[in-house]
Amino acid sequence: MAEKKEPPRRTFIKQVGTGIVSSAVISGSLSAQGTEGEAKEDSAHEGSERLALTVNGRRHTLMVRPSETLVELLRDRLKLTGTKVVCNQGECGACTVLLDGEAVCSCHLLALDAAGREVTTVEGLLDGEELHPIQQAFVDHDGLQCGFCTPGQVIAAQGLLNLHPHPTADQIREGMAGTVCRCAAYPNIMASVLKAAEQKGGR
Q1: Which CATH class is domain 28-125?
Q2: Are the CB atoms for 193 and 164 separated by under 8 Å?
């Protein structure tokens, strides 16, 4: 009986990596579609305030508690679970989202501070079911290991490229310094960001 061969690592990473980068992205994106968000169940909560903001191009109006963080709003209320919570102290960067194009830690920001502003999560980078150049670069260049920090890494990379479309290696190190990869895939993350910069420049 012939011994079953293991798939090549690059093929495996492409298959699994694409799932990590996009499966939660697609499901979260679909669950958040529809009309403007109406959190009627929160309207009875004493002290709740009305919040209007735009998330991934879609306008939402919700009643939120003054203590509710942006990551709680995104994950629990809008079901955009691509944004991860790890340290919950604004130190590891897993919860990174873009706020008006700038990378911020959503666990360290009150939802009400995003009033009238535009939030982009990892789900918002997709074009239908097509991966964004940054997402694709992370898959192609093995910029992920366990994948848990990958959404934050991808969004941090987008924030970096918003500031520096053609970043140097030092600019990448500085711009990505706030996103921790416990698997230490930093060389591949660097390669992924450099490739994404090339691809975006060619579009």
Answers
A1: alpha beta
A2: no
Tens-place pLDDT, residues 32-86 = 444 444 444 444 467 899 999 999 999 999 999 999 999 999 999 999 999 999 9
pTM of the predicted model as reported, rounded to 2 decimal places: 0.78
CATH H-level superfamily of 9-26+127-202: [2Fe-2S]-binding domain (1.10.150.120)
Q: Where are the domains of the chain?
A: 9-26+127-202, 28-125
| Alpha helices, H only, the chain | 9-31, 70-72, 133-140, 150-163, 169-175, 186-202
Cα–Cα distance between 101 and 54 in angstroms, integer?
Answer: 12
Angle at 177 between CA 174 and CA 179, to 5 degrees: 145
